[in-house]
Amino acid sequence: MIEVRGLTKRYGDVLAVDDLTFAVRTGEVTGFLGPNGAGKSTTLRMVLGLDAATSGTATVGGRPYADQPAPLKAVGALLDAGAVLPSRTAYHHLLALAAGNGLPRGRVAEVLAEVGLEKVAGRRTGTYSLGMRQRLGIAAALLGDPPVLIFDEPLNGLDPEGIVWIRGLMRRMAAEGRAVLMSSHLMSEMALTADHLIVIGRGRLVADTGMKDFIEAHSVREVFVRTPRPAALRRLLAAGTDVRADGADGLVVSGLEAAEVGALAAAAGIELHELTPRQPSLEQAFMDLTRDSVEYQAEVA
Ligand code: ADP
């Protein structure tokens, strides 16, 4: 539904987006992940026709955003939750948007209900909390019932309840068959929300992969072991295994399952006081990945 081909944006000396190519499919939440400054917002702005590409193309449903006959029916976007007149009520804000885009008035009440703002719709948005403004931004994105939704860092600054709510909404929108693209600089957020992952670093594509595959490929399985004989265990495990000390009597082992470490220790008569598989750090995998992309860039330059 969203297709980006060779997309490039240069601001003077800064190559913000560098020959980016990817597609966002329907029925999935696609996470758009990269460190701050990687080029995510710039890419989304080009997809939404808010910024002109230096070269390359971005289309939604086969057309550039500027050529959409009814943009709000084609794409709903949440870019900046602050961008609403503070003196207007939420109801009038949405009504004006609906009228300006030839959408039925009835949609306003529907989207207010969808985002849970119906009770406060008559209040001026200047009195809204960040979470409420975020919900209003999402109501606006949903107004045209579009098949494509784009959210730029939608979880920033939200309380835990708001985060859970937006995650649920994105999952629901994807389950209805829409294409949902969500940017974030946090891997942990993505792992809980996205089915597919597009990772960029310094404007370049670093990974385009299923979330499950990414987790499989990049999570280093580790086992924490405590033993009164760490040196002996370390010698035993040395070949082909990455072992590092953690405290006086602890070792962190990667490359072996907990059961394998336990079996080796038992066979050698080494007493264990703890044997714990550790949660893989996806955040670390993501940082390794984007750091590599930066190093690779430096090499070819
Ligand atoms: P992200 O959204 O991933 O944090 P951005 O797309 O905001 O990244 O920024 C990518 C790069 O482009 C950064 O180096 C940023 O400083 C630069 N940049 C973004 N917008 C502009 C602009 N209007 N003028 C000059 N540089 C910009």
Automatic annotation (TrEMBL):
<dbReference type="GO" id="GO:0005524">
    <property type="term" value="F:ATP binding"/>
</dbReference>
<dbReference type="InterPro" id="IPR003439">
    <property type="entry name" value="ABC_transporter-like_ATP-bd"/>
</dbReference>
<protein>
    <submittedName>
        <fullName>ATP-binding cassette domain-containing protein</fullName>
    </submittedName>
</protein>
<dbReference type="InterPro" id="IPR027417">
    <property type="entry name" value="P-loop_NTPase"/>
</dbReference>
<feature type="domain" description="ABC transporter">
    <location>
        <begin position="2"/>
        <end position="227"/>
    </location>
</feature>
<dbReference type="Pfam" id="PF00005">
    <property type="entry name" value="ABC_tran"/>
</dbReference>
<keyword id="KW-0813">Transport</keyword>
<keyword id="KW-0547">Nucleotide-binding</keyword>
<comment type="similarity">
    <text>Belongs to the ABC transporter superfamily.</text>
</comment>
<dbReference type="GO" id="GO:0016887">
    <property type="term" value="F:ATP hydrolysis activity"/>
</dbReference>
<dbReference type="InterPro" id="IPR003593">
    <property type="entry name" value="AAA+_ATPase"/>
</dbReference>
<keyword id="KW-0067">ATP-binding</keyword>
<dbReference type="InterPro" id="IPR017871">
    <property type="entry name" value="ABC_transporter-like_CS"/>
</dbReference>
